[in-house]
Amino acid sequence: MQNYDIETLAVRAGITRSQFNEHSEALYLTSSFVFRNAAEAAARFQGNEPGNIYSRFTNPTVTAFQERLAALEGAEACVATASGMAAILATAMALLKAGDHIVSSSGVFGATVQLFSGILSKFGIDTAYVDRTDPDAWSTAMRPNTRFLYLETPSNPLTEVSDIGALSRLAKGAGALLVVDNCFCTPALQRPLEMGADLVIHSATKYLDGQGRVLGGAVLGRRELVMDGVYGFLRTAGPSLSPFNAWVLLKGLETLRIRMEAQSQSALELARWLEGHPRIQRVYYPGLPSHPQHALAARQQRSGGAIVSFDVKGGREAAWRVIDSTRMVSITANLGDTKTTITHPATTTHGRISAEARARAGITESLVRVAVGLESFRDIRADLERGLGS
Ligand SMILES: Cc1ncc(COP(=O)(O)O)c(C=O)c1O
Predict the structure, then answer these.
(1) pTM score, whole prediction
(2) How far is the centre of ligand 1, averaged over its atoms, from the C-alpha of 33 (Å)?
(3) Are 68 and 254 in contact (CB under 8 A)?
(4) Phi and psi angles of residue 274, each rounded to the nearest 5 degrees, phi first
């Protein structure tokens, strides 16, 4: 389906019909598959014959989701995982070894920092954190054993944008891999592999589902990295995506583009309104001309995305007041839902990392993150305005 547009791929890629010729994608809720005889079982296990074996590593619904997402990202291969964190873990376990080194943007999700610094460090893999937007900081932090350059762009929650092309050249020159968490933009707005990234990571829990229903994750890239590497780890260690979740995600992908466009449009309107509000100190949104990497975002992304973060004048108290005054917007740590969500990153998503790491990431007590959903912009603004009153 290479020549179809992304909207078409989102609803048509990855379909294999069963003998019943169903129109909607089938859900194969089964843990194992039956072989005609012992010879067929042996051939499948030895990899001499294609076909499903056991849903830890082969399931037609999961395969359909993988193929559809690979088509959207323009990837050779995709492996689905139980969650976004499972995708990052599987990538690291498959492609790194003791003695390897990661250079990561300091603006990555809190649990990713925990995984790198609290867990991978126990297995002899060190991580250095750098200012995500300064290419010189990345090259200074690199060592001969650096194997991953790791980043989110835009970052969570400050929406900082990194130059994927420049970092990919840096990685290639050093024999390292550029790994990009594309959670905030999704392939509807940004395709990192086309810009030189080696691997794309997804928390499918976010926009790929887009309706706050299931957890899931994915790793995408060249066949040798994804299939020989990450898939091998998944088959053995088992942080696999359930077929049910894969089916939900397949249906989520169908509306990805229109959701991302509508939610980005409301986010832009929200960012503009907040920027002019006297109680707001600073707004972080790549679609605003005042954003430090606005020009880069305009080159890399189709729009600014649906996340708007802002510092409220008056520290934690003022930030919590905005959050607690909402009646419609959901106070929840998740993002990427049709329902608008609001979070205080310093005490929730980034609460478990050290105060030093938080400061390094620029996450203040006055920071609020809003993930804009599909409600009307007027209603979202009215709900946020209540806590910003005098
Ligand atoms: C940017 C980013 N990457 C990865 C994750 C982890 O994904 P999951 O919660 O599906 O494990 C999250 C979760 O919030 C995230 O925001």
Answers:
(1) 0.94
(2) 31
(3) no
(4) -65, -40
Contact 307, 184 (CB under 8 A): yes
**Segment 200-215, tens digit of pLDDT:** 999 999 999 999 999 9
Helix axes 243-254, 256-275, angle to 10 degrees: 70
Specify the pLDDT at position 352: 75
Residue from 104, 108, 132, 156 to probe ligand 1 pocket by mutation (most atoms less than 8 Å from CB): 156
Which residue's CA lies nearest to atom 9 of ligand 1? Answer: 84
What are the counts of helices (DSSP H) followed by strands (DSSP E) for the chain? Answer: 16, 12
Query: Ligand 1 within 6 A of 309 CB?
Result: no
| Best residue for ligand 1 mutational test, from 112, 203, 208, 353 (most atoms within 8 Å of Cβ) | 203
Find the 350 Cα to ligand 1 centroid distance in Å. 12
How far apart CA 196 and CA 60 sit, in angstroms, is 30
Tokens for 357, please give them.
Answer: 């790491």
Question: In which residue are the tokens 């899931």 written?
Answer: 216
pLDDT tens for 92-142 read 999 999 999 999 998 888 889 999 999 999 999 999 999 767 878 999 999
CA 4 distance to own-chain centroid: 24
337 CB less than 6 Å from ligand 1? no
Q: Which residues pair with 221 in a beta bridge?
A: 77, 199
d(CA 300, CA 292): 14
